[in-house]
Amino acid sequence: MDETRRDRDTEGRARNARPRDGLGRPLPYGVPGVGRQPEGVVRTPEETVQEAQRLLDAGMPFHAHEVFEDAWKSGPVAERELWRGLAQLAVGLTHAARGNATGGARLLRRGAAALAEFAAVRPYGIGVDGLIGWAEALAGRVVVGAASGAGPVDAAAEAPCLRTPVR
Fold this sequence. Notes:
The chain is mainly alpha-helical and about 170 residues long. It contains 6 helices and no strands. α1 runs antiparallel to α2. The relative contact order is 0.13.
């Protein structure tokens, strides 16, 4: 790849073709990376939750965010805030795993706030109330950890369970 030219897709839109690592960070051209999530995939809510959970469990929250983003953009208007909030949680975990404590905590809290209206509903079996608690707790730990010199969090170890049991 000629690194002086901008990567373009078949329709001429700018697209970065550099390989990415599991947290979505660009790698040098020619280095093997993690397969990217295809954009614009329309999935059922069940497929969305299953694929996002698989990616979260694998320590790839950036890729899970892309799955949620597809649902946010293609789903019913009444559910957009749900999928957007879930995408923000995944991006918050991504930033925390990259060592960006401020951005990670901010996005975790923003995602939790976006999900608040769904807490009592459990849409598609998603344990929204548990995710809100997880996000707030992780945001606090990330900020405290950064202040004490702790490094990035382990994305796989910190991955939330999207379908927490009802208590």
